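Suppose a colleague, Dr. K., hands you the sequence of a protein chain of 178 amino acids and asks what its three-dimensional shape might be. Before reaching for any lab equipment, you can write down a predicted structure in token form. Begin with the sequence itself:
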Amino acid sequence: MIDFFRRRLVRPVLDQLTQGLSPDAIALTIAIGLAIAVIPVVGTTTVLCTTAAIVLRLNQPLIQAINYLSFPLQLAFIVPYLRLGRALFGGPGVGMSAQELAVFVSSRPMEAVEALWRVTLQALGAWLLTAPFIAAVVFFAVRPVLRIAARRLRPAGAKQGSDAEAAGAVVPPSRGEG
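The predicted structure, expressed as tokens, is then:
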């Protein structure tokens, strides 16, 4: 499992750092992607992440990777958002566990839409209230880590450039050398 996350999340993030994307841009992409990924409406996250990435000029592959890797979190957050929505906005509760809810939605989707539209809107309202906090916490937690990683990776990149010169590779002159 750890190897899976290294290959699918850590390595792509480190690759983005070495390809010139700033730690702040990566942190913002991760934060927005995770905040969107936990929305309590299954089937909406890909479109929402795509839209956010276009509008905010975020890294599209990275935000989608965060989105897809966060699917278990989305499922885990549905019932808490349903409960928070009910607490904030009132109305009837959902007397089903997460597993019962999943079976109901997958076995009788039209009946589920009719029965759950109000509580879904309440859960969506709860998500709208919490998503900015999720994004802020993730951004401010991840940004320092990415800045440290960027500092550690940059000297390695600079050293590789000098190795290329030493090996006789053609290195384009900097702007000031004309």
